[in-house]
Design brief:
The complex is a heterodimer of chains A (48) and B (149). Chain A is mostly beta strands and 48 residues long. Chain A has a domain at 11-42. Chain A is built from no helices and three strands. Chain B is an alpha+beta fold. Chain B has helices at 2-5, 8-13, 26-40, 56-60, 98-114, 139-142, and strands at 16-22, 49-51, 64-65, 70-71, 73-78, 84-90. Classes of the chains: A mainly beta (48), B alpha+beta (149). At the A-B interface, strand 1, strand 2 and strand 3 of A face strand 1, helix 3, strand 2, helix 4 and strand 4 of B. Strand 1 (14-19) of chain A pairs antiparallel with strand 2 of chain B, so a sheet runs across the interface.
C-alpha cells in the first residue's frame, strides 16, 4: 500500500471502533462521498 | 479529542464526518469516553473512536512511532473522492488548533465548489483568486498581504 500523501488516495482501512455505547467494525471506504477528517493521537488518557 | 468534539455542530453544518484513531483498544476507548471525555464535553466524543492496536493504520498514514508504539498527532482532511487534501503531523507534546482545521475544510470545500483558489489566511467572505492567464504577475493588484490576517 502506498503511504499517505497530500493529493493522493487515502489508504483504506478496516478496524474496530467504539461509538454510542457500541463496538462496531468500521471501514474508511464506507465514508466515500463525504468529507472526512481523521485524527490520530498518541493515546487515551494522555494529557494533551 | 475533546476540543474536536466540542465543535460537533460546526462539523455537522459542513457535512464533515470525523474519526479518531489511537493504538488503544476499543474497550479502553469506551472507558476513556465514560471517565474523562464525557466530563469535558457533553456527550463526549460523538464519532467513531477507532482502535489501531498493531499500528497498521498509522503506518499507512506515516504517523506510527515504532519506538513508542503509538501514533503521533496526524490529522488528514479527505475529500468526497477519497483524496487527502490536507495533512498536519505534530509530535505528541503540542495539541491541534481545531479552528485552523475548520478553516481548511471550508477553504477546500469552497475550492471544490467554485474552482477559485484561496490565498493565505483565507476565511469565508475574503477575496479569492480566479486562476487565468492575465492574472500572472498581477496578483499584487488583486490581493494584499493584509488579507492574510
Amino acid at each position: 500500500m502506498d503511504i499517505a500523501r497530500a493529493g493522493g488516495q487515502a489508504p483504506d482501512f478496516e478496524a474496530m471502533a467504539y461509538q454510542d455505547g457500541k463496538f462496531e467494525k468500521i471501514k474508511l471506504s464506507d465514508y466515500a462521498g463525504k468529507w472526512t477528517v481523521i485524527c490520530f493521537y498518541p493515546g487515551d488518557f494522555t494529557f494533551v | 479529542m475533546a476540543a474536536v468534539a466540542a465543535k460537533k455542530s460546526e462539523f455537522d453544518d459542513l457535512g464533515v464526518e470525523v474519526l479518531s484513531i489511537s493504538t488503544n483498544s476499543h474497550f479502553v476507548h469506551k472507558i476513556w469516553q465514560a471517565e474523562e471525555l464525557s466530563k469535558m464535553v457533553e456527550g463526549g466524543f460523538p464519532w467513531p473512536m477507532v482502535s489501531d492496536g498493531n499500528g497498521r493504520i498509522g503506518r499507512a498514514y506515516g504517523v506510527y512511532d515504532e519506538q513508542g508504539g503509538v501514533n503521533i498527532r496526524g490529522r488528514f482532511i479527505i475529500d468526497p473522492d477519497g483524496i487527502i487534501q490536507a495533512m498536519e503531523v505534530l509530535t505528541p507534546t503540542v495539541g491541534r488548533n481545531v479552528g485552523e482545521l475548520i478553516r481548511q475544510v471550508k477553504a477546500f470545500q469552497h475550492v471544490r465548489d467554485t474552482g477559485e483558489v484561496t490565498p493565505s489566511g483565507w476565511q469565508p467572505g475574503k477575496p479569492t483568486l480566479k486562476p487565468r492567464p492575465d492574472l500572472v504577475g498581477m496578483v499584487w493588484k488583486e490581493w494584499k498581504v493584509e488579507n492574510a490576517e
